[in-house]
Give the backbone structure.
Amino acid sequence: MHEIKAFFAEHDHFARHAGIELLEVEPGMARARMQIKPYHFNGANTVHGGAIFTLADFVFAVASNSYGPMAMGINTSVSFVKAAISGTLYAEAEEQSRNTKLATYTVNVTDDSGDLIALFQGMVYLKKAPIISKDAPQG
Amino acid sequence: MHEIKAFFAEHDHFARHAGIELLEVEPGMARARMQIKPYHFNGANTVHGGAIFTLADFVFAVASNSYGPMAMGINTSVSFVKAAISGTLYAEAEEQSRNTKLATYTVNVTDDSGDLIALFQGMVYLKKAPIISKDAPQG
Amino acid sequence: MHEIKAFFAEHDHFARHAGIELLEVEPGMARARMQIKPYHFNGANTVHGGAIFTLADFVFAVASNSYGPMAMGINTSVSFVKAAISGTLYAEAEEQSRNTKLATYTVNVTDDSGDLIALFQGMVYLKKAPIISKDAPQG
Amino acid sequence: MHEIKAFFAEHDHFARHAGIELLEVEPGMARARMQIKPYHFNGANTVHGGAIFTLADFVFAVASNSYGPMAMGINTSVSFVKAAISGTLYAEAEEQSRNTKLATYTVNVTDDSGDLIALFQGMVYLKKAPIISKDAPQG
């Protein structure tokens, strides 16, 4: 898990660009946080759906890639249930099913008060190649 | 439409942070592009689902707010059908239904070759308040 | 809850047509089962996605209408994770969020072995009118 | 296409149970209708989401299986945009993407007036085995 955590912290450029910090990785599980910054807002002065999605999608990617084989997100559904305005957002991905080709995850995005901000459901397609290539330079 | 276009270009901070440029707005329709940059990538060296979502979500927001009343995204579903690696991505939102409280939009995200990258479907809840407040300063 | 349970058992014609039996209703929660019959199958000899959806959608409807005000399903997403072939399917709806206008539910569909068959996420729009009209005859 | 059409008309038991009639099949496309009957209704006196889904899911299945290899529905999202009360519902599936393993379809469900009732988006996983087995008896 340490290797996967280091890999994503290093190589997920857009998650870093969005200010997301990976907190924890277990097989089939991942947790991250995003401290709300001025660049996260939309025209309605709430956190942009794209920023919330990026946080959820990131823990979905880490959790689904946590076993080694490369997992590609193919479908995601999100219900946005409460506007986020300030503080820090947290996302936690949980595995719901996994076979040799497909796996399903749910992600809850919550705020500092523990209130649900968004509910995410996603499916990945599993490739045979590992997410961390042994041949390529990693830094 | 000019006012809405200027408003979103100015006030959608996360879309700007993601390098998205609004190209066109019509009632119930919007079109934007995102030139792929190093910060858009994920750990698998393809454009991050969060970046693709942000592009789609942005035209969804502009199209659904194009009539004036504030539209809040409540549900989105995305199928990611092809990995994006380089060049520019384009998104176009099209209105599918609209009543006084709810409206539905589809968004196609395509690459330079016109190939489909992602298929997005989203619903908004319509508030009575306008998206552009007449009382508040706009800049 | 007794009144809601009796109402749905009596008035949900398509659930009855699909052989679905309501087992339990609590505020924001409902549970039902569907014994697999020859008419539930699709061309691939597995239980039809429409039958699985109907079971999930039914507990979603009962749970979201359990407080009284009429709830209309506006968005649903389903991941089908395992084919169902025989025995009985169970569905349980759980409330994830609820405000005055919108509420969100998740539903797990499982088989006799407790294996996950489908994962469902749905949102309702809440009307002011009650689901059980006091003026109309109920039987 | 004639063989696929005959196969689904014969072997899709739940579609038949729901009163659905297959109208047309082309590679990657299918069209069907469902005349609204008393057994299609829910407790709110509108056509049940499960019945509308079954109609949409059926044309999704026929269109995605129209080339021969067996296609299994893995993800579906539906926006319900208008209540259906009487007359006939029509569904038409259109292919949006297809590679060797995954394919994506959209389905519009409309009523007699041509009004949109539901918007459906679905993904299938493609198996190597054909949907119509040459070894097994077909009727």
User: Anything to note?
Assistant: The interface with chain A takes residues 74-75, 77, 101-102, 123, 125 of chain D (CB under 8 Å). Residues 14 and 124 of chain D are 19 Å apart (CA to CA).
